[in-house]
Amino acid sequence: MFVQRTLRQAVKAHSAFTSSPAAYSAKVLSSRFYSTAVAPLDASKLEINASKNKKPLQENSQLVFGKTFSDNMLTIEWEAGKGWAKPEIKEYGKLHLDPSAVVFHYSFECFEGMKAYKDKNGKTRLFRPDMNMKRFNKSAARIALPNFEDEELIKLIGEFLKVDDRWIPKGRGYSLYLRPTMIGTQESLGVGASNKALIFVIASPVGPYFPSGFNAVNLLATSDKVRAWPGGTGDAKVGGNYAPCIKPQLDANKEGYQQNLWLFGADHQVTEVGTMNCFVFWKNEQGERELVTPDLDGSILPGVTRDSILSLARQWGEFKVSERKFTMADLVKADKEGRIIEMFGAGTACIVCPIKKINFEGKDINIPLDPSDKTSQAGKLTKRINDAIMDIQYGDVEGPKGWSVVV
Amino acid sequence: MFVQRTLRQAVKAHSAFTSSPAAYSAKVLSSRFYSTAVAPLDASKLEINASKNKKPLQENSQLVFGKTFSDNMLTIEWEAGKGWAKPEIKEYGKLHLDPSAVVFHYSFECFEGMKAYKDKNGKTRLFRPDMNMKRFNKSAARIALPNFEDEELIKLIGEFLKVDDRWIPKGRGYSLYLRPTMIGTQESLGVGASNKALIFVIASPVGPYFPSGFNAVNLLATSDKVRAWPGGTGDAKVGGNYAPCIKPQLDANKEGYQQNLWLFGADHQVTEVGTMNCFVFWKNEQGERELVTPDLDGSILPGVTRDSILSLARQWGEFKVSERKFTMADLVKADKEGRIIEMFGAGTACIVCPIKKINFEGKDINIPLDPSDKTSQAGKLTKRINDAIMDIQYGDVEGPKGWSVVV
């Protein structure tokens, strides 16, 4: 009898406190996963209360990433036991949150980065939005935030883009950056699954990452601080992955390097560069031309651009394409033997970002660029990948099925 | 000439974008660290605009951790190049933040947990607030948030406690839980140091963790998910450490365990339990009675309770006290040989939380409690530590200098 009571008592005693929200979480969990009454995310319930205030647009040349936002935003609230409320498009404006909201304390937050492009016919296109939605749901699940119906959020983003259509800048290289974000909004300091959440999508017009030809970056190979680890959250786009990388980045900046090359383990495996996936194109030890990026072992972000580059390169079939680990020792050896062809980071913001130098343990590795190109610092493959992906994003070339989606 | 231009150009090109806020960060950095004009945190500038609305207090028996908050809150804004603004005590209420505020995206957030106690003379006491302030500053620096003057924030918390004095519950085991929090509030999606920040302190009255005698917890030893890693943020109290632990906790709950015992490495080192530090009291392999907790290797939170337990136990001088790594194999062997005396977690919420069972790879390790105690599940040392710390916190016993501070 005593034993039978114990667990229940313990759960009850613990449920109310920071360290042990067992009972509470169990309740949330059961309502979330076992109740059939909770409302799914339903785009058909959208309410549009768009802003009557039309802010002035900026000149394309004045656009700065993530600084200016469109007139409206898309918001959708979620509550445990109830599910997703009516989605709403309303005037862009402040969020009003209790200071006890768990997003401020325990980092219940995840996001996506994607872009809307205007094609030459004036149509609006998204690039592989299904990949973003899949990852968004995966990130949310990793931090016990609710999941949603992928297709419905894509539809809602399409509606949002219709309302704020004038904010999508025209011209190759220009786009409307979209930031779908999910936060936990429970108003209680108990450390457990959040009983409330909010999806919001905001939009910021952006220009090309490299407005006048590529500028290659210098990297500081960093091993004293570690971006991600197996069993951690490196493969999820959660907020907690980002703030800890700023101090090392500032330290790198002070020494004249723009980004960190994140290493892992005693053998200094190359993982990511800044907030981008990392690619090396080299002649490997077997003498084959090979494009390599680290495999998705749980600590690497499954980038949409990363996946697209791998797909395109495999489709081209001109060189070997590998997802596998490689170390700084591999790079140093390849450099000594003159086998590195080029190297770049990859992500939504830049598509590709050429690398020209890596400092590792006080010594520089110089990465080749295209010496025949006097106006732009990038290797030939880097430029080819950039053009190929951009062609598809802007609808100039028909890409693989489902990559460029007219909304 | 080209080479000279390159870095500047690259920095400029990168500064505006998600992946590379080099120039921007350098500007923030220099204004923060090299300008002498920035204002320090100054408690003498406090403005008190306390709420005229006095919310009803709850009965002591009704108190739930982190659910109800006092009438007011303390807030202090910071801006790069300007420093700390006037602190303000004002009515507890919502924070109004732009959806682009970096706290929602990149987890610029850190916090402390501390308590205010009413002693038998009606005076208000804090327990080792200098330790909390030191750690708060260390956490902030780890995620490139600004630092502040420790003593000034302690003074401000003292003023806050005077204004909300009626919210400090009386009685042993009761206290006003304080949650100092710092968030980055920059309104821009660039991934760099936040150019604005906010400290807020909120307060929630709480009762004893174990209202009617200790309830020992069952733990699931967890190695597929990892709480912290060398080079990560395990030794800082940043939000990003918490949300990723909820899913594993829910999984443990489903199997009937209240908490995770977080392991690390191929040799399954014991690190923390739930959100608490972990202690084992055993007869070690040399036959000595020894209290052990993992050493602060960068992945362990430097708990105030942890430090207090070590100090007290060393002062008692009755058994060996060690900060060192130990593994699940060590625990399994000690269990087989009947050498485990007791085991507990330690943290501000509970002081100590006894452990009675650990499931590791499908097998249970039963941890002894005090068999002579029919009303409470805890070992003798666990109970002694709890009483000793509580005696000091409530001013009933004079502790080491600076531990119990009347404000």
Written account of the structure:
The structure is a homodimer of 407-residue chains. With 407 residues, chain A is α+β, with helices and mostly antiparallel strands. Chain A has two domains: 35-52 and 59-206, Aminotransferase class 4, branched-chain amino acid transferase, N-terminal domain (D-amino Acid Aminotransferase, Chain A, domain 1, 2-Layer Sandwich), CATH 3.30.470; 217-396, D-amino Acid Aminotransferase, Chain A, domain 2. Chain A is built from eight helices and 20 strands. The first copy, chain A, has helices spanning 2-15, 22-33, 129-142, 150-163, 246-254, 304-316, 328-336, 380-393, and strands at residues 47-49, 72-79, 83-84, 88-91, 95-97, 109-111, 114-118, 124-127, 175-184, 196-206, 217-222, 259-264, 269-273, 276-283, 289-293, 320-323, 340-347, 351-360, 363-366, 404-406. In chain A, strands 1, 2, 3, 4, 6, 7, 8, 9, 10 and 20 form a ten-stranded mixed β-sheet that branches. The first copy, chain A, has a six-stranded mixed β-barrel with strand order 11-12-13-14-17-18, surrounded by four helices. In chain A, helix 1 crosses helix 2 (22-33) and helix 3 (129-142) crosses helix 4. The longest helix of chain A is centred in the first third of the chain and has 14 residues, at 2-15. Chain A is globular, with a radius of gyration of 23 Å. The model of chain A is unreliable at 1-35 (pLDDT under 50). The interface between A and B is large, with 102 and 102 residues.
Structural class of chain A: alpha+beta
CATH second-level architecture of the largest domain in chain A: Alpha-Beta Barrel
Distance between the termini of chain A: 62 Å
**CATH fold name of the largest domain in chain A, please?**
D-amino Acid Aminotransferase, Chain A, domain 2
Largest sheet of chain A: 10 strands, mixed
Can you tell me the CATH class of the largest domain in chain A? Alpha Beta
- Overall form of chain A: globular
Largest interface: A-B, 102 and 102 residues
Q: What is the mean predicted local confidence, pLDDT of chain A?
A: 92
